[in-house]
């Protein structure tokens, strides 16, 4: 029997004895007491409910990943022929429940309080139009976005322009640089708006989510850490806050000027490879994948970088691909003239290095100097041009 229910029954039984013994007590008191305790018991045992309808999901099932400070659970949800579903869970605290398609092509995080009823509606053929109702935390986040709607519209417009100019190659290079500068300005204003919101609402769980979305990124980790320390009450206890604290601690271990962690893996040729093998040399780790469109552009930049430093005795590149099939990467490497050392994720080696260096996106690059110190982190090796000129001064660039 539920302990809380046992306690309530015990209290009710004591009330009966008390009234029977003194007789002067009104039977009305007993009925009122029983009714109140019954309602209290029901309230405490109320579950969170996530339900809705997703059309055109051929697999007919969803995965639900529930995370809070006490547990991590995975549920498989079966959809009805019309795409309807319902998940009822007893949550010990505010939680993140991520609804994911079986092929992992789409997922949406839901921020759920212990007794909320959340409605999810969408179409698997149009994932941009998913609608979520019933989450008070989500409502608060949407309020923040609505207040800064003009900034988010401009951010979206500039991002699309940059994508378009990027795939125009050299022809769109000048416009891309201009759009990128404007986008950075807009992102800075969004970051400032997020900081203002968090400082005004340190107790709101939405503040933790907004911090993670708009401030918890490289180049702003110091600022993010300061804001993280201002969170209070439920926001401080929220699972995402705990994850950010852990990530911040890990990131500091692999930030610029930190000692690069050693690794021992196998290349696609089956040869052993470790960081120790590059003592006294400069090593560029390039994190990539054959299915990543922007990685294709980065491969061209890497080839230019390799060509510029081909006469150097101390400069090396290692590509670390998230491809799980060696054959996919080998075909890609041949197409893009990648001739340096390569590692894939066929046995989990690439994932282990990503985790070791706290990499959360591709393309990405880490530059390590002759002393084994991280001297550069960024989305492109092109960002290290000045550093390489300094580190390899005897060669022409």
Question: Could you explain the architecture of this structure?
Answer:
This protein is 44% helix and 22% strand. The chain contains 13 helices and 15 strands. The N and C termini lie far apart (76 Å). The protein is globular. It has helices at 3-22, 27-44, 136-147, 149-166, 173-200, 205-214, 221-228, 233-237, 239-253, 293-308, 326-335, 349-356, 385-391; strands at residues 48-55, 61-67, 72-78, 84-89, 95-100, 107-112, 117-123, 126-133, 264-266, 272-274, 282-288, 315-321, 341-343, 364-368, 374-378. The strands form four sheets. A five-stranded mixed sheet has the order 13-12-11-14-15, with helices on both faces. It has a four-stranded mixed sheet with strand order 4-1-7-8, with no helix packed on it. The protein has a four-stranded antiparallel sheet with strand order 3-2-5-6. Helix 5 (173-200) packs antiparallel against helix 6. By secondary structure, the chain is of the alpha+beta class.
């Amino acid at each position: 029997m539920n302990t809380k229910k046992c306690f309530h029954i015990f209290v009710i039984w004591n009330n009966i004895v008390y009234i029977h013994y003194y007789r002067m007590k009104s039977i009305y008191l007993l009925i009122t007491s029983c009714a109140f305790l019954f309602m209290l018991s029901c309230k405490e045992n109320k579950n969170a409910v996530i339900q809705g309808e997703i059309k055109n999901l051929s697999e007919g099932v969803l995965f639900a990943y529930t995370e809070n400070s006490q547990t991590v659970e995975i549920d498989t949800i079966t959809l009805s022929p019309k795409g309807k579903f319902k998940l009822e869970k007893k949550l010990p605290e505010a939680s993140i429940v991520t609804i994911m398609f079986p092929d992992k092509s789409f997922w949406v995080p839901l921020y759920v309080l212990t007794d909320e009823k959340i409605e999810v509606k969408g179409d698997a053929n149009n994932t941009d139009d998913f609608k979520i109702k019933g989450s008070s935390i989500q409502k608060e986040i949407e309020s923040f976005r609505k207040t800064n709607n003009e900034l988010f519209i401009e951010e979206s417009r500039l991002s699309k322009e940059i994508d378009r100019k990027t795939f125009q190659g050299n022809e769109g290079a000048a416009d891309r640089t201009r759009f990128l500068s404007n986008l950075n300005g807009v992102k800075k204003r969004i970051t400032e708006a997020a900081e203002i919101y968090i400082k005004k609402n340190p107790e709101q769980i939405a503040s933790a989510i907004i911090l993670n979305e708009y401030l918890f990124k490289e180049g702003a980790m110091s600022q993010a850490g300061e804001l993280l320390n201002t969170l209070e009450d439920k926001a401080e206890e929220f699972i995402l806050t705990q994850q950010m604290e852990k990530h911040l601690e890990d990131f500091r271990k692999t930030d610029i000027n930190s000692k690069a962690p050693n690794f021992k893996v196998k290349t696609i040729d089956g040869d052993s490879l470790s960081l120790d093998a590059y003592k006294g040399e400069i090593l560029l780790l390039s994190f990539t994948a054959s299915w990543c469109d922007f990685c294709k552009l980065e491969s061209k930049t890497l080839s230019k970088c390799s060509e510029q430093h081909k006469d150097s005795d101390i400069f090396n590149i290692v590509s670390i691909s998230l491809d799980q099939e060696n054959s996919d990467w080998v075909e890609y490497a041949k197409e893009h003239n990648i001739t340096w050392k390569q590692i894939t994720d066929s046995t989990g080696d690439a994932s282990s290095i990503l985790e070791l260096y706290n990499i959360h996106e591709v393309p990405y690059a880490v530059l390590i100097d002759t002393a084994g110190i991280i001297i550069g982190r960024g989305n492109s090796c092109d960002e290290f041009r000045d550093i390489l000129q300094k580190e390899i001064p005897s060669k022409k660039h």
